[in-house]
Structures are given as C-alpha cells and as structure tokens.
Design goal:
Elements lengths: L1 E5 L17 H20 L6 E6 L9 H14 L7 E6 L6 H10 L3 E7 L3 H6 L6 H14 L4 E7 L6 H12 L5 E6 L7 H7 L8 H17 L3 E4 L2 E3 L6 H7 L4 E3 L5 E3 L3 E5 L3 H11 L4 E5 L2 H12 L6 E2 H8 L3 H4 L1 H9 L3 E4 L2 E4 L1 H4 L2 H8 L2
Parallel strand pairs: 1-2, 1-9, 2-3, 3-4, 4-5, 5-6
Antiparallel strand pairs: 6-8, 7-8, 10-11, 11-12, 13-15, 14-15
Helix pairs in contact: 1-2, 1-10, 2-3, 6-8
Length: 373
Amino acid sequence: MLYFHIPFCRKACHYCDFHFSTSLENMENMIKAINVEIEIRAKNCQDKEPETIYFGGGTPSILKPEMLGSIFETLHHHFNFGKIREITLEANPDDVTKINLNAWKTLGINRLSIGLQSSNNQRLTWMNRLHSYEEGKAAVFLAQDSGIDNISLDLMYNFPESTSDELETDIQALVQLSPKHISAYSLTIEPDTVFGNRLKKGHLSPLPEESAALQFQQVANSLQNSGFESYEISNFCLPGYEAVHNTNYWFQKPYLAFGPGGHGFDGKARYENLPNNSLYIKKLLNESSLLEKSELLSNHELANEIIITRLRTKWGISNQDFNFHTGIDLLKERSKILKGFIQTRLLTIENETIQLTREGKLLADKISMELLF
C-alpha cells in the first residue's frame, strides 16, 4: 500500500534540513513545483491507491487553504483516494483557526499533529517557540470542537536542570487535553545549533545520562497509567489510535515523498530530493525534471533499516518476515549477540520474534548497533 509524505518547514531549525521561505511568490512557486513533481512521480508509480498522506517534517499549516487545495487537486487527479485511512497535517498552534480548520476538514484532513512540547512557558520561550501553552491548549480545544479529534501532541523532556515534578506537570497538562496520541522526545543537543553553541560556551548544562533515563521511564509510566499504550519507544496512543503513517514507515512500506528534502522509498531503493528550495523550484518549473539522489539498498542495508526501526516498536522483529525481505536469518546470524542480550534481560524472543524488554528500551540504540550488519 502506497503512502505520501510532503515535508514543509517555516524556518531553519534543528528539526528540519531545509529553509521554507514565507514570501507569497516563493510559496506559490513552491506549490507549482510540488504539483509538477506529483505529476512526474505519478507517471512512474504503479500503485495509485495511497493509504495515508502526511504533510509534515515542518509546518505546512502556514500554507493558505487554497495552496493546500491545489496540492490535493493534483493528487486527486493522479491517484485514487478510495483507500485513504489517514491524512495528517503538522500544525503550529497559531495556525489553528476556525477558517483553517474548516478548510482542512473539507480537504479530507482527519488528523492533526500539534507541536505543544511543554506546558511551561519559560521552557517554550527557551526553545524559541512562538506559542504559549495557553495558546496551544486553545488550539487543541478549537480543533476538537471543529470535529478533528484525532490529535497528536508533541512532548519534550530532558531539559537542562529539569525536575521530575516539572516533567509530571507537563505530562498531565497534555493528558488533560484529551489527545489520542502523544509523541515524547528527549531534547538532543546537536552541534552547530543554538543549543549546541550554548553548550560549547558553557551556558547550558544537560542532564546526566542517568537522569535522562529516569525521565524516559517517568514518561512511559505516567502515560501508560493514563491509558496510553507504548507502541514505539517515543510514541504513545490510546487503543486503536496508532499513527498509520508512522507505522507504515517503520515497516518499510513503499511511499512517495514530494517537496525539497523529501525522502521516498519504493521497497528496494530510496531517493532524496534536492533540499535547496530555489534550485528545487527552478529545476521543476523550468525543466519539468527532478534533481534527486537515489540509492538501491543491499540486503544488508535493508536489514539494518529494519533492525533500527522495527526493534523500537511493540511488534519487534519477526525473524520470518526479516528473512523474507532480506534473505537473512537474523536469529542464526546474530545468535551469540542475541543470547547475551537475553541473559541480561534486555531482549526476549518468543515465536521467533525479537522484542525489547522494559530495560532494553533504555538501551535501544546500543542494542540495535550491536545487531547491525
């Protein structure tokens, strides 16, 4: 089953690898370029029935409804929406208005991902967020009142000098907004970012690793006590509200990606669109051609992707499915390593399916690295 990913970004930041200009002319040209790309990729796509559409990897909510409508019109022209299950839009709280909500619903958008991050306004200011918690809360209620109640909220934890009491306040503040889904991310400090520079200058003191681990456990415990299921290390949902789009990604299902910096996958090869906005637009509007990098994955590369993504989920890695897709018997090839992780109670294997234990989730990256080919 095919699915679509369309990334956008309001401004350069450590969550996104390209800059989306907000000038009207550039936005209009961007939409035209994306529509041309959709037409080109549709010609080479055998599966015409997408299951999900995800507008995100940034802030597509800044687009005028007619701009989003133009993209949908092109998609409808080339694809059959009869099997669509989920259309998600990443939205900034300040873009969630009655006018936009009505337009989004008319287009078929039935799920919103709202980047709330924290209920602490000082933390939001520290992260350079434009919204306050009160504005985020109002946006959630407005969306729910409009009839879009399948809402995912982002929660950030592991702030420098943060406490368990502060984190618990954040968790309960989000839970009280009645979202169907919460994505919880540990704050990571990357080089050459605002936070990275603060750290380098000694103006920022990250929590020690043991404190970050305790905060992860607190998030998992508190959300599960509130009725949320941990179906992936960073993702929690009420029963039946797993993100279909994300789950498809973790299971290596084919998807098309449109827009600068978009990454697509046909089941065997991955492509990456040119991340530069102006060059992306120029190439498509002037030449009606794509500028992309493509890579055919070897069996070992595909195996590594499955290990990295699927081990983090509640479903774990089925050795039978792993063997089918890669031709590799993971239980046989990594028997000694797996045995060691089982003995230290970091992994379990039942019915030839490898799964992380609660303790193993704290070391998921380390375990995955040990299993890679």
